[in-house]
Amino acid sequence: MRFNLNLKKKIQRFCLLLVCLVVLIFQSDIPNLKALTMDNYKGAMVIEELRLKVPAVSKGAWLNAEKEIWDPWLSSQEGFLGRQLFWNKEKEEALILVNWKSKELWKNIPMSEVNVVQKKFEDKVKAALNVGENPFELIYEGELDKQR
Predict the structure, then answer these.
(1) For the chain, which terminal residue's Cβ has fewer other Cβ atoms within 10 angstroms, N or C?
(2) Is there a single domain that holds both residue 11 and residue 76?
(3) pLDDT tens digits, one per residue of 4-54
(4) Are residues 63 and 100 in the same domain?
């Protein structure tokens, strides 16, 4: 009788271990094993995402200033791969997507340099629209990681 009790406990433990192994195997997500680790994120392509409030009456001044101020400066930056500009008529919002070779190259650009270019951009817009302050409110800034 004692032998049967020990055997029964061993079988229960084995079954529990087997269930745990099955759950563990099916919980692993193989595609995620190929995902970037936190140590390697700086070397992968990244997309800078900016959203601005751009009223319809100011759209032309915005596009002109983007082309004259930001385009030449961005083109001179190491790691810059290109960018896309979008405008949503209903929301009167702009979406700017800037492609960078790596997050490290993007983040190595000194903020003081970016601020100088932003000031030139704002001065250009204010002069074109004859206003005292930048009419393009920054709604959101973030980044998107390219998925494989």
Answers:
(1) N
(2) no
(3) 667 677 777 776 666 655 555 666 554 444 444 444 555 789 999 999 999
(4) yes
For residue 112, the domain's CATH number is 3.30.70.100
**What's the CA gap between 129 and 116, in Å, rounded?**
20
**φ, ψ dihedrals at 110, nearest 5°:** -65, 135
CA 143 → CA 52, 56, 102, 140, distances in Å? Answer: 15, 26, 11, 10
**What single-letter amino acid sits at 65?**
A
CA distances from 144 to 76, 96, 98, 101, 123 (A): 22, 12, 10, 12, 29
For the chain, the domain total comes to 2
Per DSSP, the three-state class of 66 is helix
Kind plus residue range of the DSSP H or E element containing 75:
helix 71-75
What tokens were used for 107?
Answer: 């983040």
This prediction's pTM? 0.70
